[in-house]
């Protein structure tokens, strides 16, 4: 390793506290430091090339070297590097971006509120719904239903929504008005012989029982990712949202679509809710909104909610919610250019052309002796490894299967991610069929080595 690489890695170890990282391991082994990107590839400080099979954090739709987005940022920075929307101010790119977003979403949208991150946007969803329900005179209607396995962020409120142990354990969960229903994981949780439709019936029944137990007049909203991403790429069973939403409507409960990962083409439609038959009242978007070249997220709300907020503000003076960088002109200009490029390059057709190949290559892993389930839609998917195919038996976390396989992938020049025992794939949307082949070739090598090691060490 060069002295340059050594000193950078040592510096990271000495000075940086890493997000969502095993801190013990980081202290022992240091980090993989990425220095530059090109197309779907990134390069570490030693110059080694990797395919970025996760588009970073499910976000760099245009890969790592889209100069149009860089130009949009530079141009806006020269013109106006910062201004805000507090106290009746506005900036031009934010207005244009809001207009464009409204025209894209598959529901009647009225206003767009900008934040920097998906967590802040989902936090805003809760605050707006609480504020709205106070405004319309039903202050007791405040509880929010989320799902085990869902990921909605890490702020205090959104970490309470997030139903994944790693993001909850060790941190307090102070909000007692957040409830959870089951993760809709057909492969893992369906009973012997139960069809997807029957499984969806059972989940809808569970939801209704919870609502009745808690009292429908105390429940404000239900939040869901159309396809669960961080929890293991879990598309819902057939008819799930149709049945869930029938109940939500019956009890006057708002549906929030968390489109932070699924939004902007990922599942083969512009929004994930179109793929899974979900009809949201409000929506959260982030990540691919700007291809992640600049931090920006948004909450998109309908007219009736906006009217409630306006009325409350007439009483209270101001709508007291906002973030210094929310609607920042530079990320807004980048996001706007990103959405224009999406259209100019006909990305939806491109995604629809290439995703059957992605899904076919992904599903080819189903024959592997250690693979229990393969699932996905569009350009997102997962390969779930099991200790026994027949019994659908998961590996114990202590077996270290994911960690071993991950390390082998790194060795072969592939960055992706494990969630539990599921290997996740969510490449940049610009990926070509040849690059998909290469990505899965590298994963296949790592998987075979993991299988060999697991057998040799008695893990399989
Ligand atoms: N919702 C979903 C579905 C996500 O996957 C994420 C982040 N991965 C978030 C919300 C939170 O976004 P952020 O990390 O920008 O706060």
UniProtKB/TrEMBL annotation:
Gene3D superfamilies on file: Aspartate Aminotransferase, domain 1 (3.90.1150.10), Type I PLP-dependent aspartate aminotransferase-like (Major domain) (3.40.640.10)
The keyword Glycoprotein appears for this protein: no
Annotated keywords: Aminotransferase, Pyridoxal phosphate, Transferase
Domain of life per record: Bacteria
Single GO MF descriptor: pyridoxal phosphate binding
One GO-annotated biological process of the protein: gamma-aminobutyric acid metabolic process
Keyword Nucleotide-binding: no
Any Pfam family the entry gives: Aminotran_3
Family that this chain belongs to: Belongs to the class-III pyridoxal-phosphate-dependent aminotransferase family.
NCBIfam families reported in the protein's UniProt record: PRK06105.1, PRK07480.1
Name of protein: Aminotransferase class III-fold pyridoxal phosphate-dependent enzyme
Origin species: Emcibacter nanhaiensis
């Amino acid at each position: 390793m060069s002295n340059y690489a050594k000193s950078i890695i040592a510096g990271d170890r000495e000075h940086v506290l890493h997000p969502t990282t095993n801190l013990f391991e980081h202290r022992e082994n240091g980090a993989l430091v990425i220095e530059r990107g090109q197309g779907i590839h990134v390069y570490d400080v030693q110059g080694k090339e990797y395919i970025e099979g996760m588009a970073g954090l499910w976000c760099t739709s245009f890969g790592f070297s889209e100069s149009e987005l860089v130009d949009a940022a530079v141009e806006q920075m020269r013109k106006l590097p910062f201004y805000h929307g507090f106290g009746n101010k506005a900036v031009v790119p934010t207005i244009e971006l809001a207009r464009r977003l409204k025209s894209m979403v598959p529901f009647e949208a009225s206003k767009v509120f900008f934040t920097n991150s998906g967590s802040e946007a989902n936090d805003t969803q809760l605050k707006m719904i609480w504020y709205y329900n106070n405004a319309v005179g039903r202050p007791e209607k405040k509880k929010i239903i989320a799902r085990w396995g869902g990921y909605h962020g890490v702020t205090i409120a959104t970490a309470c929504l997030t139903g994944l142990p790693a993001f909850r354990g060790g941190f307090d969960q102070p909000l007692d008005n957040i409830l959870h229903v089951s993760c809709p994981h057909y492969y893992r949780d369906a009973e012997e012989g139960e069809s997807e439709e029957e499984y969806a019936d059972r989940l809808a029944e569970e939801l209704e029982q919870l609502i009745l137990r808690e009292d429908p007049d105390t429940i404000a909203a239900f939040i869901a990712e159309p396809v669960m991403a961080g929890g293991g790429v879990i598309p819902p069973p057939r008819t799930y949202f149709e049945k869930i939403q029938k109940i939500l409507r019956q009890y006057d409960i708002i549906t929030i679509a968390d489109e932070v990962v699924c939004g902007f083409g990922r599942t083969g439609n512009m929004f994930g809710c179109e793929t899974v038959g979900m009809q949201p009242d409000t929506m959260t978007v982030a990540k691919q909104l700007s291809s992640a070249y600049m931090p920006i997220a948004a909450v998109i709300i309908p007219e009736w909610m906006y009217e409630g907020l306006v009325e409350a503000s007439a009483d209270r003076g101001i709508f007291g919610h906002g973030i210094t960088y929310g609607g920042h002109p530079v990320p807004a200009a980048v996001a706007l250019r990103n959405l224009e490029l999406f259209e100019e390059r006909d990305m939806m057709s491109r995604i629809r052309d290439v995703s059957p190949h992605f899904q076919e290559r992904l599903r080819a892993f189903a024959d592997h002796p250690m693979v229990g389930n393969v699932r996905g839609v569009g350009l997102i998917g997962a390969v779930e490894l099991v200790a026994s195919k027949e019994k659908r038996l998961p590996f114990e976390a202590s077996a270290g299967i994911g960690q071993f396989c991950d390390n082998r992938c790194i060795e072969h020049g592939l960055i992706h991610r494990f969630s539990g025992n599921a290997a996740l794939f969510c490449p940049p949307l610009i990926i070509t069929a040849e690059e998909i082949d290469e990505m899965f070739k590298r994963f296949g090598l790592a998987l075979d080595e993991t299988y060999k090691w697991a057998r040799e060490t008695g893990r399989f």
